[in-house]
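From the thread on structure requests for the teaching lab: each student submitted one protein with a one-line request. Submission from student K.M.:

"Model WYL domain-containing protein from Sphingobium yanoikuyae, tokens only."
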Amino acid sequence: MQEALLRSCCLDIAYQSQSETTPRLRRVEPWGLATGPLAYLVAKPVGEARTLRNYRVDRIAQAALSSQPAVVPEDWDLDRWMTDSIGVFHGDAHDIVLRVRPSAVERALRWRFHSRQLIERDGDELVVRFRAGGLRELAEHLFTWGDGIRIEAPAALQATMRERIALAASAL
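Reply posted by the TA:
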């Protein structure tokens, strides 16, 4: 993967998505590697109109360099792209507003939800604001805060949290 990035060439990967039972061969243009709890290849599928996608490195069974050049825009900046994400997940950007309850204020003051977050005090609570995509990952992270945080906006994040709660409840 690193060699494909350095040479600006496409990569043929055998990738098994979460919904597939066996790896499927795909040709991608690698644009970067993103790390977090897991490592991801940020790449654009060749021949598809879709935009960049994250491929979990641990789900890539094989990778081989292709002779086809990868066309990565000169102004591409992985750090800038990641700024609009929650973790490594990129999606349509939303204006996020989280209200931190008094029991979690101390922890929230030590936590960075997003690189461009704004924090304001509201009585004995905090209001955290930022703009980002990746609502599913944010909703899953907010589980770790228990009742310490209330989602004020957007409605799409509230809906995502309800879906994740229902899914978790179905496991009981």
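TA comment: The chain has five helices and nine strands. The mean pLDDT is 91.
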